[in-house]
């Protein structure tokens, strides 16, 4: 009976070893780090840069339905959404909802 599930057991154990152990080690090590240290500023900067690079790639080189939208609409929605995000005190929900609403309204307006 266990022979039928051996592949799934290996995948589960390998998945645990590859991710969860490192997460727990990160939690243990993270409790000892100073939040104002230069190392954490660097980590935050790298993480932010990676997120922004992925976002820029999705805006400039989209796939799926977003690829059918004009570039000016994607850039405009992102720019206005970012401005509204800053004006509203960096509220993430607003920074996500506004560009989505602008994209939907723009798609409706141009008839896509």
TrEMBL record:
<keyword id="KW-1133">Transmembrane helix</keyword>
<keyword id="KW-0812">Transmembrane</keyword>
<feature type="transmembrane region" description="Helical">
    <location>
        <begin position="6"/>
        <end position="27"/>
    </location>
</feature>
<protein>
    <submittedName>
        <fullName>AzlD domain-containing protein</fullName>
    </submittedName>
</protein>
<keyword id="KW-0472">Membrane</keyword>
<feature type="transmembrane region" description="Helical">
    <location>
        <begin position="92"/>
        <end position="111"/>
    </location>
</feature>
<feature type="transmembrane region" description="Helical">
    <location>
        <begin position="71"/>
        <end position="87"/>
    </location>
</feature>
<dbReference type="Pfam" id="PF05437">
    <property type="entry name" value="AzlD"/>
</dbReference>
<dbReference type="InterPro" id="IPR008407">
    <property type="entry name" value="Brnchd-chn_aa_trnsp_AzlD"/>
</dbReference>
<feature type="transmembrane region" description="Helical">
    <location>
        <begin position="39"/>
        <end position="59"/>
    </location>
</feature>
């Amino acid at each position: 009976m266990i022979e039928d599930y051996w592949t799934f057991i290996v995948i589960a154990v390998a998945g645990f070893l590859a991710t969860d152990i490192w997460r727990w080690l990160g939690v243990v090590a993270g409790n000892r780090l100073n939040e104002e240290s230069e190392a954490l500023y660097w980590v935050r900067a790298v993480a932010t840069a990676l997120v922004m690079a992925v976002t820029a790639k999705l805006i400039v080189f989209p796939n799926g339905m977003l690829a059918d939208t004009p570039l000016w609409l994607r850039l405009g929605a992102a720019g206005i959404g970012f401005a509204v995000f800053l004006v509203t005190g960096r509220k993430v929900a607003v920074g996500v909802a506004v560009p989505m609403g602008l994209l939907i309204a723009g798609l409706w307006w141009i008839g896509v």
